[in-house]
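Example 3.2
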Amino acid sequence: MLQKDGSIVLNNFQQGQAESPYIGYAKMQCVNLIDTQGVVKIQPRTVLKYATNGLPTAIVRDIYGNEYVGTDTGYLYKNGVVLQSGLTRVFDLLIFKGYLLIFRDTVIDCYGLLNSAPTYFSSWKTGLTTGYWHKAIADPDNDIFITNAGSVAKITSFVAGIPTVAPTATLTVAEKDLPTGEYARTLAMKGIFLAIGTQAGSAYTDVEYGIGNIYFWDRGSTLFEDNFLQFNENGVHQILNIGNSLIVHAGTHGNIYETNGVSIGKPKKINFNIENNATTLPLPNAIAQIGDEILVGTSTNSDSFPSLSTHGVWTVNKGASSIRNIISTDGVGASQNLVIGSILTVDSGANKTILIGWRDGSSYGVDEIDLRLYDDYQTVIESQIYRVGEYLNKKPYSHLEILIGEPLVSGQTIRVSYRTNLTDSFTVLGTYTTSNTDSGQVVIMDSTISIVDAILLQLKVEMKQATTSTYLDNISLMEVRLR
């Protein structure tokens, strides 16, 4: 915040990243705004759990702790080991009545029973339409619904077999047809209704037609409900049911909506590209919830490199957004395509973690959240760009003060930089460790800095913690003041 005396104060970090660097924080990357309100901390880092062949488009876990990953190159993994290959694209996975169902381009495979020596049943069901995303969910009546181009498919009458005999079921490939020219992309339950998110275009990647609706269907009627939600966006890509609301990621510009099924709230924009010269293509399985946080994965769509885009796993909490985690390569889509294919939150006793399926250029993998913190200045806060002076009355600065809630410990570092317009590189003002504070002190004062002749000014604060430090330690940044 710009003060009357021209000093700049950075605090109230819980506001999150703004939709524009001219109105609020320009970047909030790898920051923890949740655990302790009023301060900003470093997020636990991502580490590679295992590399994959292809983009992980779906991740699920069974009740026995086994983890399954399907990729867009037709690989299926079990606990990081290849279970099947040559499957063509895997769109989704679903654990259902003791089986793993694998939804591919035109067929559904089945693997089970999972509590014994499972058998893989290839092409268990056939007839899906190629080219469109096959998102699958089970409803409370133990039926399965699948997006299938211009229709919703349905699996009913599922009866388990024995380990060497496939289960029986009935697949109806067009249980419910959509309006002409619309194609089902993703699904969620909303009470008794199936919420069907749609797109236009000739394939799931073809999303440039300004059509993105949600239709509600009670799963028994021949008609949709009278009310449907029209977003006037390039597709409805991700839907997440939270209580009695739906969180909807629609279009290609990062707009996140909350709806009760009748009205649509004002969108919260994930500002993945501050120049608004790029678009994102969110994939249906790259959305999840952990605690109070809504996690949304963004991916490169149209862009040019080098880019100012920042892609990864974003958190949306109480209207504030920030990029929660970048992937283990530290790639964010600045120099090559970055895709988040799937997110799975895992709550195991006292530990909560996140699994992230990603592609960075030609590299692929599944990340997990580590107990250690980001250790190489991945935690970044960029302030609003402020007008601090005039052409004939430019503003100088000579003092920097940093307030922290707890004294720094060995291995923790804060670095502060500045620039005088949005296209310049940042210039480091100072790098601060325990050597800059007395024992037990919570204020860092630097009176050696020198900024002269400023008209516009933007600050950047970066933090890191050595991996040799215990994860119980963390920087608690309360305020940065420049005067």
